[in-house]
Design a protein that fits this description.
mainly alpha, 0% strand
Amino acid sequence: MGNLLNEPLLTKVRAALSEPFNDFPVEYDYVANKVRGVDPKILYTILYSEVAPVCFTNLVAAVPPVWTGFDPETLKESIEERLAARERNWFRQQFDKVLVRWLQYNYAYIWKEIASRL
């Protein structure tokens, strides 16, 4: 991804940004408090290029497998695996570009809620 966040902070930010993809109502103030201090441009990129591609299926599932929160370490592994696959495969890069655009459009309300509280 190329951002300037150290590993513990990146894991914390990813976990916080995964909260809107849980099956419970989202406390956007809580999410914003967890990510406050990080450049909003970096947060936006992490949300839609890293977290959403891994977590959005939880929102569209008939019975969501994650109700109370994504495990930060499992989330980290899933994101890193997806980023590595994106790097290795040109077709995956193109697919993910389209997916990210779709996620930005379909889940724009998530960023609006977080950004309004930063």
